[in-house]
Amino acid sequence: MTPVLSVRGLRAYYQMRYFGTLREVRAVDDITLEVRRDEIYGLAGESSSGKSTLIKTVARAIRPPLNVVGGEVRFDFGQGERNLYALSAEDLAATRWRNLSYIMQGSMNVLNPVRRIRQSFIDFALHHMALPLPAFLQQVEDHLAHLSLRPAVLDSFPHELSGGMRQRVTIALATVCRPDFIIADEPTTALDVVVQKGVLAMIRRLQREMGSSVLFVTHDMAVHANLTDRLGIMYAGRLVEEAPTRALFHRPLHPYTAHLIRSLPRIGDDAPRHGLEGRPPSLASPPPGCRFHPRCPLAMPVCREVVPPMEELEAGHRVACHAARQGILP
Ligand code: SF4
Ligand code: MG
Q1: Residue 243's beta-bridge partner residues?
Q2: What are the C-alpha distances in Å from 179 to residues 3, 18, 192, 315?
Q3: Residue 33 Cα, ligand 1 centroid: separation in angstroms?
Q4: Which residues sit opposite 319 in a β-bridge?
Q5: What local confidence, expressed as pLDDT, does residue 272 receive?
Q6: Residue 250, helix vs strand vs coil
Q7: Residue 53: left if φ>0, alpha if ψ -120 to 50, beta else—which one?
Q8: Ligand 1 atom with least separation from CA of 322
Q9: Which residue from 260, 300, 304 has its CB within 8 A of the most atoms of ligand 1, so it is best to mutate?
Q10: Ligand 2 centroid to 125 CA: how many Å?
Q11: Whole-number pLDDT of residue 327
Q12: N or C: the chain end with fewer CB closer than 10 Å?
């Protein structure tokens, strides 16, 4: 089955001139991945690993100094693959909301503070639906009811709603046009655990019912374990491992993934969590070879010089690690 999203060799750098010299922050560096129809693909990694930059680039929601310097982003919404960056502004606008919906980090703040929620729905979504206003509003109400939101929220101002309610409304807004592909960046991070659970269940249900694909970003591995079908791990601008979520938790092949999983709190286990020495590198001057080598307990001389290629070592399980290639597991 053809993937809905194909990212190939994507590089997106922040490029700044500093006294005549070009300074580059390589936030997304040679990333290749696919998201299939009808799956939730998770993207994990510490903050500033490039996750948000990657999905901004995938949504073509970038502006200078962030530039795409290589690679491709292709979508297939059922009429053949198209390069997102080759679309005209008009065609791009036509894909928004109906084909591709992007729930940005902190997106509860997209709701206009001085307008009632109803007006935000009208402002954002009405012209994508080609419906007369009364029919559109009926559809909005049906969609809200389906998501267990009272139609009365339409009369509210954003500040009258709780954070969890605002996030639900934002997700309702992003999905009212039934998009083929939903991109969500840390949509539950600001919420408490109980509210978070409700929002995640809502995303899962919408995805199943609409048969859409979701690209879901969070640093929270526990959320990935509960929500995603496949998972990619980013470190310092690169994808270092990718597998079905269950396989990845069961048997991580990359030392960094193993670290992320071991850092998860476990019920009934009071053993101290293993910390990792050091911090992620600056993306303006990342270390040569494997970018993880200064922190890696398995680092070998080759790791300091040669970038480990991403290879499929088990069916559907890709990893970029010299040790893993030699059968050494973290
Ligand atoms: Fe560690 Fe080397 Fe693997 Fe990088 S390539 S994760 S440094 S063993
Ligand atoms: Mg982020």
Answers
A1: 231
A2: 16, 41, 27, 30
A3: 21
A4: 241, 311
A5: 57
A6: helix
A7: alpha
A8: 5
A9: 300
A10: 26
A11: 96
A12: N
Please give the C-alpha separations between residue 197 and each of 184, 188, 192, 194, 222, in angstroms, as whole numbers: 15, 9, 9, 5, 11
Query: Taking phi first (over 0 means left), then psi (-120 to 50 degrees means alpha), and beta for anything else, what does residue 250 get?
Result: alpha
Determine the Cα–Cα distance for residues 327 and 313; give it in Å rounded to an integer: 9
Nearest CA to ligand 1 atom 6: 321
Of 1, 203, 310, 174, the residue nearest 218 (C-alpha): 203
Instruction: Kindly report whether the peptide bond that precedes residue 65 is cis, defined as omega within 30 degrees of 0.
Output: yes
Half-sphere exposure of 220 (CA within 13 A, CB side): 18
Q: Identity (one letter) of the amino acid at 210?
A: M
From the CA of 184, which ligand is nearest?
A: 2
Q: Which pLDDT does position 103 carry in this prediction? A: 87
Q: What is the residue type of 300? A: M
CA distance 183 to 213: 9
Cβ–Cβ < 8 Å for 200, 188: yes
Of 321, 325, 326, 328, which is best to mutate to test ligand 1, by the most ligand atoms within 8 angstroms of its C-beta? 321
Chunked into runs of 10 residues, the chain (330 residues) has average pLDDT values of: 93 92 94 96 93 95 96 94 95 89 78 92 87 94 90 94 89 91 90 87 91 95 95 98 97 96 76 72 93 96 98 97 96
What is the model's pLDDT at position 137?
95
Distance (Å) from CA 313 to ligand 1 centroid: 15
Kind plus residue range of the DSSP H or E element containing 72 = strand 66-76
**Cα–Cα distance between 301 and 105 in angstroms, integer?**
39
